[in-house]
Design a protein that fits this description.
The protein is mainly alpha-helical. The chain has two domains: about 1-130, Winged helix-like DNA-binding domain superfamily/Winged helix DNA-binding domain (Arc Repressor Mutant, subunit A); about 130-170. About 70% of the residues lie in helices and about 10% in strands. The protein has helices spanning about 1-5, 10-35, 40-50, 60-65, 70-85, 105-125, 130-155, 160-170; strands spanning about 55-60, 85-90, 100-105. Strands 1-3-2 form a three-stranded antiparallel sheet. Strand 2 and strand 3 form a beta hairpin.
Length: about 170
């Protein structure tokens, strides 16, 4: 593989290991959320973002920015979640073009019912298997990669700067 890509076999092995770990961790988290609360990881992210907002509601645009998602993805998922009774859209009185996304009682139950298990699953498959030193190295490496991607990911994106990348990392 090194002839074509100019990446050493050792580096490919490291990449495949990181890629497989991320995919498997995402998969186990997704399955646990489905089992515990009948919600997807994407739905959990929306519910958690709205739940953590002091006013208990977020504008759709703000939600997309916070999660790093395209507006159409947010809109389609909110529509599906609204049909399931997890969120409700409310008109924004100060800006009639915008809407607020708020949790319903079912949405609040879903996020509260899954938070403890979600955290325990992350602990079990991530924190508990790493030493403090390994965790520090992983955090440092992850932040360096995110900083490198931040500039490239923002190419052509409106109002994207280093502060956006930092706030995105902080919200994850």
């Amino acid at each position: 593989m090194t002839e074509v890509s100019e990446i050493s076999n050792e580096h490919w092995d490291a990449w495949r290991s990181v890629f497989a770990m991320r995919r498997q961790l995402d998969l186990v988290l997704e399955r646990r959320l489905q089992q515990m609360a009948d919600i997807s990881q994407s739905e959990f992210e929306i519910l958690l973002a709205v739940f953590q907002e002091p006013g208990g509601q977020l504008r759709g645009r703000q939600l997309g920015e916070r999660l790093g998602w395209e507006g159409s993805r947010v809109s389609h998922l909110i529509t599906r979640m609204e049909r399931r009774g997890l969120v409700a859209r409310r008109e924004c009185e100060s800006d009639l073009r915008g809407t607020w996304i708020a949790l319903t009682a079912d949405g609040k139950r879903a996020v509260l019912g899954s938070m403890r298990d979600h955290a325990a699953t992350i602990r079990r498959y991530f924190f508990d298997v790493l030493s403090d030193e390994e965790l520090a190295v992983m955090a440092t490496a992850s932040n360096r990669i995110l900083e490198a991607i931040g500039a490239a990911a923002c190419d052509g994106a409106p109002a994207c700067d280093a502060e956006d990348a930092k706030s995105e990392r902080a919200s994850v």
